[in-house]
Design a protein that fits this description.
The chain contains 20 helices and 22 strands. It is of the alpha+beta class and about 675 residues long. The strands form five sheets. Strands 1, 2, 3, 6, 7, 8, 9 and 18 form an eight-stranded mixed sheet that branches. The chain has a six-stranded antiparallel sheet with strand order 12-11-16-15-13-14. A four-stranded antiparallel sheet has the order 17-10-21-22. A hairpin with a 4-residue loop joins strand 11 and strand 12. Helix 16 runs antiparallel to helix 17. The longest helix has 27 residues. The chain starts with a strand and ends in a 6-residue tail after the last helix. About 50% of the residues are buried.
Length: about 675
């Protein structure tokens, strides 16, 4: 790494030069840096808004899942079988499915070797369990904090290698050659310098960028993403990176005071669902109004444990996803608050002494609770017996489930789509590698825990490719500045305008308004007219953003850049959603497309909830690119690359590997 200062537009801006830059400090980004170093590609820098801020560090569930090939007992599995599970989830390329399956074991055991405490038997078998959309017990877990352990241990590996880290540096731009076909480097703001009177802009000149900025967390208000996670997909779209499958986000039940997924044991212990008025009064259990029997209601709650993501296919016949819809209705339509209560059993399913009527459960649910030795007591006693860490997690965050209700909502949780990447995770932008949730490798459905595997596999692939391809010559700082001049002028002009603007509103207020609008129009419930209206509002705001934003403190520059990234991201996502609906796309994945010609899932629900289930239409993959005007998008649909069964011959593949042909 080399550092110098340059004079630009009357400012002395520091410029860091390195062969490769990793943007982001989550599990995928840290793994990319560690792998690059170990591949003897050591001229690298990590740039991060905050080492402890990302989703990997701050999110989880009852037992957060890592998905990999089966490694225990007589569970027969193969790379092709696992790849087929991915591929059959819809809208995923076959070669990406094969790569994520093939490298799952290598990536998993790398985490084991650096100290992530995945459990194994006395014989050394890494036992698995079934997760959502998983036929083969491939899932494993280190507990509620699996990704936290991953990030913590990978950070230790990075620190031991003394890889330079630019902490408290927020991305402000992805810089490209004028043709928007290859990256030049990055523009960031040094958050520690914003009110110091010193120069806060920072330039990074590099050959390769591994973009590990996480999912688009800040585009929704109702979200289980940690508040510290923002994402930077909009800056990648601005630079010309193409997105794919942006319509396919996951939503599910989560707590709101402390943001956490409420899957697994949190549901399998069958808590009470109650709603209240906004002031906490008028408490009532509401699920019983929509289920035909207490047993049906209890089964739906239980199944919500491992059918956690909202899925329109699981609404009818009083399925588990009906619960998500009912929670949404209480909050959005009825303007009430919804809670889980672990202190009492659901009244409708209990006897006069308050004991749950376990005999009303399905055989599957009954046997699960019986084998777990929890046929009795209250939900909190069952939770603590089955999964004490899940209880302690909330207590450590000042919520005692034994003493208080837990407020919940249907929240945005993960984007299966994202930035496009090839089988080495390289974008359509040359030398730009989106990894982790920033990358959109998955399509409609994916097994739970596959996101953690994808982040490790993708960052390994990017690092291996970068380290083994023929590197281009490192450009001089002078050449870098020359090529980036127009982009830098635009960013500086943006700052100058909002700093000196006497009108407008605070960037925080505008950001919150747009997040609320996105949650209303483009989350679990989607209506074309509402999506189009929100898209036009976003376009208008982007078109005159400097006139709309007023800051009174330089620290607000950070929020202004977040607002800009959020608007760009929302515009591209709203375009993708509107196009999917216009192409005849129906409800699938984790959202409902409202259709007047559809049908209601339940007679008690209003006409508003009419929809049709997707029957496999639009199996192609949608790609989206933001035009140079940054106000309109080009959308294309492509056939999926097939999943091929190959009769691999060792000597032939060995030759390709020895000669480096695999990197072509």
């Amino acid at each position: 790494m080399h550092k110098q200062k340059v004079n630009f537009a009357g400012r002395k801006i520091p410029v860091y030069s390195a062969a490769a830059v990793v943007a982001g400090s989550g599990a995928a980004g840290l793994n990319a840096a560690k792998r690059l170093y170990d591949f003897d590609y050591q001229d690298i820098i990590i740039v991060t808004e905050g080492m402890k801020k990302g989703t990997s560090r701050n999110t989880g569930s009852d037992k957060q899942t890592y998905y990999k090939l089966s490694l225990s007992g007589d569970n027969r599995d193969s790379v092709y079988d696992m790849a087929r599970t991915y591929y059959e989830g819809g809208a995923m390329h076959g070669d990406l499915a094969k790569v994520e399956a093939a490298l799952s074991v290598r990536s998993f055991f790398h985490l084991v070797e650096i100290g992530v405490p995945f459990p194994h038997t006395a014989q050394g078998e890494y036992v698995g369990y079934k997760t959502d959309h998983d036929p083969a017990r491939r899932a494993t877990s280190a507990g509620p904090l699996t990704s936290h352990y991953m990030t913590k241990n990978l950070e230790r590996e990075v620190q031991s290698r003394k890889i330079p880290i630019l902490d408290q540096h927020q991305l402000a731009g992805v810089l490209t050659y004028p043709n928007r076909e290859q990256v030049l480097g990055l523009l960031a703001i040094n958050l520690d310098k914003l009110n110091s009177g010193e120069e806060h802009l920072v330039l990074i000149n590099c050959r390769e960028i591994v973009y590990a900025t996480g999912g688009p967390a800040q585009i929704y208000k109702t979200s289980v993403y940690p508040e510290s996670q923002t994402g930077a997909s909009g800056l990648a779209f601005e630079a010309g990176a193409r997105g794919q499958n942006l319509t396919e986000s996951q939503y599910g039940l989560a707590s709101t005071k402390f943001r956490w997924n409420l899957s697994g044991t949190y549901q399998q212990v069958i808590p009470r669902y109650v709603s209240t008025a906004q002031d906490g009064s008028q408490e009532e259990e509401f699920l019983q109004d929509y289920f035909s029997s207490p047993g049906k209601m209890m089964d739906a709650i239980f199944l919500k444990g491992y059918q956690w993501p909202f899925d329109p296919r699981k609404i009818e016949n009083q399925g588990s996803s009906l619960i998500d819809l009912l929670v949404y209705r209480e909050i959005v339509e009825k303007n009430r608050r919804v809670w889980l209560d672990y202190r009492k059993n659901p009244a409708w399913a209990s006897d006069k002494d308050g004991e749950l009527k376990f005999e009303l459960l399905s055989e599957e649910a009954y046997n699960y609770l019986k084998n777990s030795q929890v046929l009795g007591g209250t939900p909190i006693t069952r939770l603590r017996k089955m999964n004490e860490p899940a209880y302690q997690l909330y207590k450590d965050n000042d919520i005692d489930l034994a003493r208080e209700k837990l407020e919940i909502a249907v929240c945005a949780q993960h984007n299966n789509g994202g930035l496009l990447g090839d089988k080495w995770w390289q974008s359509n932008l040359k030398n730009f590698f989106p990894v982790g949730e920033a990358n959109g490798s998955h399509g409609v459905y994916r097994p739970g825990g596959s996101a953690l595997n994808s982040g490790q596999v993708g960052s390994l692939r990017a690092a291996e490719f970068i380290a083994n391809k023929n590197p281009s010559e490192m450009r001089s700082v002078e050449k870098f500045i020359e090529l980036a001049t127009e982009q830098l002028k635009k960013k500086i002009s943006f700052e100058d305008q909002i700093i000196h603007n006497n009108n407008g509103e605070s960037p925080k207020k505008l950001l919150q308004e747009r997040q609320q609008r996105m949650s209303e129009t483009a989350a679990i419930i989607r209506d074309r007219s509402e999506v189009m209206e929100a898209e036009e509002e976003t376009r208008r705001m982007l078109d005159n953003l400097p006139e709309r934003v007023k800051i009174t403190d330089c620290l607000e520059l950070s929020t202004a850049y977040h607002l800009y990234d959020c608007l760009l991201t929302q515009l591209v996502y709203l375009n993708a959603i509107a196009d999917y609906i216009d192409q005849g796309g129906q409800s699938r994945g984790s959202y409902l497309i409202l259709r007047k010609e559809g049908k209601k899932p339940l007679g008690e629900l209003p006409e508003f909830f009419k929809f049709k289930i997707s029957r496999g239409e639009k199996e192609e993959i949608q790609t989206v690119k933001l035009n140079r005007d940054l106000l309109n998008c080009k959308i294309e649909w492509m056939d999926r690359r097939p999943l091929k069964e190959e009769d691999l011959w060792f000597e032939k593949e060995w030759k390709k590997f020895r000669e480096g042909e695999i990197y072509n």
